[in-house]
Amino acid sequence: EFTMMTILREQNFERRGEMIENYWLSKLVGFSHPFLNELIVDLKNDCSITELATKYKTSRQNINKHFESNLCKSPSDFKKTQRFREALKSQMNSKNKNNLTSLSYDMLFYDQSHLIKDFKSLTGLTPKNLFKNISSQEDGKVNWLFV
Q1: Which three-class secondary structure state does DSSP give residue 34?
Q2: What is the pLDDT of residues 51-65, one digit of tens each?
């Protein structure tokens, strides 16, 4: 609690970001799992849970249990969050920031309504409203979100 309060009181946003990153990285020290890191990489590469269960010689339920206990997310929630982050990154780096249909298909959403549904569930905003309220640098890094 003290650490987080110290971080949140930091006035310099860049320094605050570094402090938050360092805090979370410090929590990873000593983490060891026989296959979770590889499983995450495979999940990011769009493998299904069934394929992963076969590859790692375990059950789908066991994979779900490992995700819930180590990441506090189900594999599908993790994948949804990851796809959101990739879509945000792609949109911030794109010259054509208004084409949500292309973004939807580039990020492997079923269609544009699927993209909108996921964005709203994670942020409470449609992609259009989210992107119009983001201040970003030329390199695509997000400076601030104005809600």
Answers
A1: coil
A2: 999 999 999 999 999
